[in-house]
Design brief:
- By secondary structure, the chain is of the alpha/beta class.
- The chain has a domain at 308-448: Aspartate Aminotransferase, domain 1, CATH 3.90.1150.10.
- 37% of the residues lie in helices and 13% in strands.
- It has helices at residues 28-34, 44-49, 51-57, 83-90, 109-122, 133-144, 159-173, 185-191, 215-224, 273-279, 286-290, 296-305, 309-329, 345-351, 369-382, 412-418, 435-448, and strands at 14-16, 23-25, 126-130, 150-154, 176-180, 197-203, 228-232, 249-253, 267-271, 334-335, 361-365, 387-388, 398-401, 424-428.
- The strands form 3 sheets. A 7-stranded mixed β-sheet has the order 3-9-8-7-6-4-5, sandwiched between helices. A 5-stranded mixed β-sheet has the order 10-11-14-13-12. A two-stranded antiparallel ribbon has the order 1-2.
- Helix 5 (109-122) packs parallel to helix 12.
- It is globular.
Length: 459
Amino acid sequence: MAETRSCEFGISGMKRAAAADSFEVDDEIFVAKKSMLPTLAVAPAAWENDPAASLAGLRHEFGEHGGINMSIEASATFTVMEPETMRRMFTGELGPDRDFFIYSRHFNPTVLNLGRQVAALEGTEAAYCTASGMAAISSVMLQLCSSGGHVVASATLYGGTHALLTHFLPRTCNITTTFVDITDHEAVKNAIVEGRTKVLFFESISNPTLTVANIPELSKLAHDKGTMVVVDNTFSPMVLSPARLGADVVVHSISKFISGGADVIAGAVCGPASLLNSMMDLHQGALMLLGPTMNAKVAFELSERIPHLGLRMKEHCRRALEYATRMKKLGIRVVYPGLEDHPQHHLLKSMANKGYGFGGLLCVDMESEEKANRLMHHLQNSSQFGLIAVSLGYYETLMSCSGSSTSSELNSEEKALAGISPGLVRMSIGYTGTLEQKWSQFERAISRMEVDSTLFNKN
């Protein structure tokens, strides 16, 4: 791909003059305010301590008139002062690294600022924010794989991702996928065909079974065979940092925990600047040509939420651990990586960023869909413990029976391979009200259910 045809994620010490298409040397203050850098700009020592330190080390983007919040650049297209400048922009000679913008499908200043924040959060060189999580995943897969390409993926994935790999990519692009138990490293190794397998794809904490992937070992295994590692970290922002642990690319559905409001759809691709540049190539870039563009107004809203993501994640995780512990004592079959009897508890503990807990989701296995539905009915309609809805990361608890909802794209055999029980209830634990208040609501719902000796299986 021609490097000169990309709008690069780079570092610039120049600024665009206010009334002309020329440059003058910046002073340090102006660079801190105006340069468009989606790259991580924080000392490695700070990042090693805490992802929040990385975010705090990122420069602050001020508003056009000195506001403490950045301005929203809502323009779809951008002017130049001289016609020759536009030619130079389209050849890649001038770009957003020097404060030159063509069209917001390519780059937008507000969206670029959000990209800087997400890159800092994940500890990657760059990030590009998209209109949805699926847009991020599909763009990465189409960039890294060509016709005839091969992917090895976890058998337990979000239903939409599974459908993309199982049905859409083979039909439209001749890209095939082998699904494996991601905890069986020998099976993963045997599935990767050196020279042909382009991507190893898995979720850091799987949807919905909450299986934790050994990111360092899987990354080493894939890299030994020349395969890139793409990790969906939607379930565990702040908790896990896959790029630090060896992954090449990290993708997110920002709609979930990072947003926290269940009011926007958004995604992100985080990785090396070279990859993001290739994805923005005018002739060959998946992001450039497929156009999964994030709206600048959405980017502004999200950029205001990331600074308190760490606080929110700590409370999601604190309550999830407390509820899981209490549910277990009641004899409920609960799955949560923070419990010591979870198969990957110690693995997650060894990989996790300190102080953020073990994730904000837990699962209750009611064995049958009928029992799962009865439980959710009482939790929503009898006691107001939570809401029956898909998605996660909201400030209220959200509940769904995964097999008949977010994993419904999988057939019965695929669900069995993924370990998804028909009665598996996924709960995204919220933080509204007091912990004791919400727990009393949970107990009240349980008491309203029919007395049934088979309802709960003692561990």
